[in-house]
Specification:
- This protein has 246 residues and is an alpha/beta fold.
- It folds into two domains: 5-95, Translation factors (Elongation Factor Tu (Ef-tu), domain 3); 108-233, 3-Layer(aba) Sandwich (Rossmann fold).
- Helix content is 22%, strand content 28%.
- Helix 3 (151-160) links the parallel strand 8 (136-141) and strand 9 (164-170).
- The longest helix is centred in the middle third of the chain and has 13 residues, at 117-129.
Length: 246
């Protein structure tokens, strides 16, 4: 197990009624990580939970995390209460093999559920910094409009980066009257635009049941196992996803 390093909370920013952005800086030593990886965030009582890193390692040693806080999640309840009085946390890692760059040069489909957008954000930042010219299409499913919490940033990429496309997705029962984007399930939105995914490299992050469902459905539309990059394929199936990816 990796030795825990001390980090300090520099910013805790609410992004919606459930989601917070957390910026951490190292006390002394810093981890070295790649876009798409995750860390384990710990408190002084020794409780650690995994969260994806939401920024690419482009400058400095800051870690950005997206925390989905609900009152029935004991760790996030404890974490936010602790950060109200202290800024010192502990980091183990990094972990995960679903990293940029992928093992081939196919066009990228980037599939995010909830705060599974965090590692996707890091991958996009890294790809843009590297001048990656492959087509990239992000599908981001959320429970409500305000949980597309970085919609302005992603829309900016879609406007300014010729090879980048963005499709936000909402459940049919949560769609406002003026919604112009995809509705329904994430896999349905992807398959509607890409009935054959055999020529794509796919990154998928979010609650693990969602990712397993995506992989199963896309397998009937040309997906081969080596094309599918996700932490959800690397863990025991009793887990339902990283704390942040709900």
């Amino acid at each position: 197990m990796n030795k825990a390093l001390t980090y300090h909370c520099q910013q805790l920013q609410p992004l919606s009624d459930r989601i917070w952005r957390l910026h951490l800086t190292p006390d002394d030593k810093a981890i070295s990580f790649k876009a798409g990886q995750y860390i384990e965030l710990g408190l002084p009582d020794g409780d650690f939970k995994p969260f994806s890193i939401a920024n690419a390692p482009l400058a400095g040693h800051t870690l950005e995390l997206h925390i989905c806080h609900t009152h029935d999640n004991p760790f996030t309840v404890k974490l936010l209460a602790y950060l109200a009085t202290s800024d010192k946390v502990f980091i183990r890692g990094p972990f995960g093999d679903a990293i940029y760059p992928p093992h081939d040069d196919r066009p990228l489909l980037l599939l995010a559920g909830g705060t599974g957008f965090a590692p996707i954000k890091a991958i996009i930042e890294q790809a843009l910094a590297h001048g990656d010219s492959r087509p990239m299409h992000l599908f981001w499913a959320a429970r409500a409009v305000n949980e597309h919490y970085d919609h302005e940033l992603v829309s900016h990429w879609a406007q300014c980066v010729p090879q980048f496309q963005y499709t936000p997705v909402l459940p049919s029962d949560a769609t406002p009257a003026d919604w112009l984007f995809a509705t329904g399930l994430l896999d349905e939105a992807v398959i509607k635009q890409y009935p054959d995914v055999s020529q794509h490299c796919i990154y998928a992050f979010g609650p693990f049941p969602l990712i397993w469902h995506l992989q199963k459905q896309l397998a009937t539309h040309g997906l081969a196992p080596h094309q599918f990059l996700s932490d959800a394929t690397q863990v025991d199936d009793t887990d339902d996803g990283k704390e942040g990816e709900k």
